[in-house]
UniProtKB/TrEMBL annotation:
Keywords: Leucine-rich repeat, Plant defense, Repeat. The keyword Nucleus does not apply. It comes from Citrus unshiu. Residues 313-449 form the C-JID domain. This is Uncharacterized protein. InterPro entries: C-JID, LRR-SigEffector_domain, LRR_dom_sf, RPS4B/Roq1-like_LRR.
């Protein structure tokens, strides 16, 4: 029996391999090292170590049981059980352990984790790598609001159905992901250097950050069930809203749907051709998802702006389906008149930032701003509608070309009845140590009534709209004929059919 340590904080035993029984210890011990010992059980007497903060039991290959009195360790912060090959059960946690932040169970024989894990409100990190017998996490693990990092490489776990956020940042040995929960909203995969592919994503997913996944060779499959938009969504979002430039108390911006693949350089090889070919479908999916998300928020919240969606990935080419492309940072297009404009729900956009002569020490984050000005001209008046869009901060060091693809909703512009000329001018600005924009592209997006389902709309992308420079000047005209559509100027819209 070891006691009366007084001010002693740290206890290390020599010749650990000879220790077959857990020593009886009392005193103000904060760190206890029993790595590679031959103990088979952590007894109930451990409850007396009320000051213990770190318990090391790594590679105790005979350890089979841990007493439920373990929950009396109210000061415990870190628990190391990795390499305990015969440990099959984690003890029930009968009382709250407020301070326990990190649990390491790598390489154990654990078959399940108890539902009483919810008594660990401060748990931040859970390692269950190479736990071959562990096939699921507790269904209520999503209730642990502090749990931001689950490392499960080499395990066959299925994720709990209620999980909304999963942070696997820095899991260097993670090669693949299990099927993702349907309600997952946030997925963080930064610096997963061995990850090669992603499963189909949840329809609820709002943020995916896969920065620095060096071996990632393809983007996730596009969900097949998100194809059409309910009429009620457009009706709700098209209602007049306060001037976006006047920030009202209580008004909120909906967060953009963001998929970030910065520095995933494998995506810039042969895979890039398929990515560009699929980009129209991908933006279409994200446009519908962002409108639905905005609709859900608008029901109970005051929204000052819909932020749309954004994808950032390696590359320097603008997809061919952007029929309006320009070198530099600005582009002007003429929208088709009347009924087409009335169905306009937003614009897809693309920009390639110029990374030349950027100081690597200071280039830590950036964002791209798009200023959109609509000039709507009728026989009696001309009005301007200013709409801006800031991409979210991209917090990565980037040393190669990247493409920013996005969708900007604009549902309450207020186009007049009758024929009119509408000119859309886009200006892109690179912020925070970027030189500027190399090239850009835009594409109007329309919602047309579905031919197969009542009260639903399909999303269409205009594949042929005119640059302003290609048109005869329309300024100063009052001739009705000039405001009517010319057969040569009719916009052709590319409807995206389901595969």
């Amino acid at each position: 029996k070891l006691s009366n340590f007084g001010k002693e904080k740290r206890l290390v035993f020599p010749h650990l391999s000879r220790i077959s029984k857990f020593p009886q210890i009392s005193g103000k011990i904060t760190r206890l090292y029993l790595d590679q010992s031959a103990i088979e059980e952590v007894p109930s007497s451990i409850e007396c170590l009320t000051d213990l903060e770190v318990l090391y039991l790594r590679n105790c290959k005979r350890l089979k049981r841990i007493s439920t009195r373990f929950c009396k360790l109210r000061s415990l912060v870190d628990l190391f059980l990795n390499g305990c090959l015969n440990l099959e059960r984690f003890p029930e946690i009968l009382e709250k352990m407020e301070h326990l932040k990190c649990i390491y169970l790598d390489g154990t024989a654990i078959t399940e984790l108890p539902l009483s894990f919810e008594n660990l409100p401060g748990l931040e990190v859970l390692f269950v790598e190479d736990c071959s017998k562990l096939d699921k996490l507790p269904d209520n693990i999503g209730n642990l609001k502090s749990l931001g990092h689950i490392s499960a490489a080499g395990s066959a776990i299925t994720l709990p159905l209620c999980l909304e956020s999963l942070n696997l940042t820095g899991c260097n040995m993670l090669r693949s992901l299990p099927e993702l929960p349907l309600c997952l909203k946030y997925l963080y995969l930064g610096d997963c250097n061995m990850l090669r592919s992603l499963p189909e994503l949840s329809l609820c997913l709002q943020s995916l950050n896969a920065r620095n996944c060096n071996r990632l060779q393809s983007l996730p499959e596009i969900p097949s069930c998100l194809q059409e938009l309910d009429a009620s969504v457009l009706e709700k979002l098209s209602k007049p809203s306060p001037d976006l430039r006047q920030w009202a108390p209580g008004c909120l911006e909906s967060q953009p749907i963001y998929f970030g693949f910065t520095n995933c350089l494998k995506l810039n090889g042969k895979a890039n051709n398929k990515i560009l070919a699929d980009s129209l479908l991908r933006i279409r999916h994200m446009a519908i998802a962002s409108l639905r998300l905005g609709y859900e928020k608008a029901i109970n919240e005051k929204l000052s702006e819909l932020r749309g969606s954004l994808i950032v990935l390696p590359g320097s080419e603008i997809p061919d389906w952007f029929s309006n492309q320009s070198s530099g940072s600005s582009i002007c297009i003429q929208l088709p008149p009347h009924s087409f404009c009335r169905n306009l729900i937003g614009f897809a956009f693309c920009a390639v930032p110029d990374l030349k002569q950027v100081c690597s020490d200071c280039f830590r984050y950036f964002y791209v701003k798009c200023q959109l000005d609509l000039e709507i001209k009728t026989l009696s008046e001309t009005k301007h509608v200013d709409l801006g869009y800031n991409s979210r901060f991209i917090e990565d060091h980037i040393d190669s070309d990247h493409v920013i693809l996005g969708f900007k909703p604009c549902l309450n512009v207020g186009f007049p009845d009758g024929y009119h000329h509408t000119t859309a001018t886009f200006k892109f600005f690179a912020e925070q140590n970027l030189k500027g924009i190399k090239r850009c592209g835009v594409c109007p997006v329309y919602a047309n009534p579905s031919e197969t389902k009542d009260n639903t709309f399909t999303i269409n992308f205009a594949t042929e709209v005119w640059k302003l420079d290609d048109l005869p000047s329309a300024s100063g005209t009052s001739d009705v004929e000039e405001l009517e559509p010319s057969p040569k100027r009719i916009c052709r819209a590319n409807q995206i059919n389901t595969p």
